[in-house]
Amino acid sequence: MGTISKKKAYAAIITGNTIFGFSFMASKIAMRYCQPEVFLGIRFFVSFAVMNLLVLLGIGKLNLKGKNILPLLAIGACQPVVYFWAESYGIKATSSSFAGMMIGIIPVVAYLLSVPINKEPFVMKKLLFAIISVCGVALLSFSEKAEGGVTAFGVICLCVAVLCGAMFNVLTRRYAEAFTPFERTYMMFGLAAVTYVTFGLVKVEGKMSEILPLFTKPIFLAALCYLAILSSVIAFFCLNVAAGGLTSQQTASFANLTAVISVIAGVVVLHENFTVWHAVGIVLTLFGIFMLNRS
Asked: Considering the domain boundaries, does residue 204 fall inside one?
């Protein structure tokens, strides 16, 4: 079915989503220093610069000559371009608990989309396990302190984020054999860099004096390195690798592992509260992921 072994694919998808799980802490730190659009511009500029450095060093291989790159642009538009924008404003215009629950729906939507687009089989018990995983994420989300209300604009943004996140999983699987993981990752961050650098410069009205001082702050640089290199280049590369050995239904199911890792990271690193509902949510999430892949 795929181009790599199942063991390597599972190792890649678990690694990628584990890295994502710690990214929420890094994002909270980075956002203390600048606005979201500005930071995303810096983040993806650095990510794309790293990708180009890998090409120059001969570590990353690009062979796009004569290929139709429209599928790559579609993948990049879904994730990270539109997804990051929609998620950011969705979280801003709703409560954190509601946003977490909505994002947790991605595996279910990806499961349903994979049937007509990738011709993957529809198995009711697999869909039920995906829903169980979503229930686990919902428990984790509503165990947090709810802040803010829910607006129509926020709900629309989160629906767009869910659709883009699901389409990313489906499209990466569909074109896993047409393009290498590096080529897919390279185009994703090329498109994201162009988009968010433009947004960031518009936000600061082209004043580099508001951006350059950020690079003198060690804590900001540490968060930037984690998000731009680990949580962007490496994590998304892992997801693109996994797409060559797993179905889009399987890769999407692991998206909710991020919520579990995020809660554990908050408890261990930030000493946040851990309740029985967190424990139940984690168990349900992991059970749903395990059973969907086992079945």
From this structure: yes
Question: Do the beta carbons of residue 231 and residue 20 sit within 8 Å?
Answer: yes
pLDDT digits (tens, 9 = 90+) for 65-75: 888 999 999 99
pLDDT tens by residue, 188-204 = 999 999 999 999 888 88
Domain-embedded: residue 182: yes
What does the pLDDT read at residue 221? 93
Examine residue 1 and state whether it is found in any structural domain, yes or no.
Answer: no
Other C-beta atoms within 10 Å of 118: how many? 16
Look at the chain and report how many structural domains it folds into. Answer: 1
265 Cβ neighbours under 8 A, 6+ residues apart: 21, 22, 24, 25
**Domain encompassing residue 98:** 6-294
* Tens-digit pLDDT profile for residues 141-179: 877 665 556 788 888 999 999 999 999 999 999 999 889
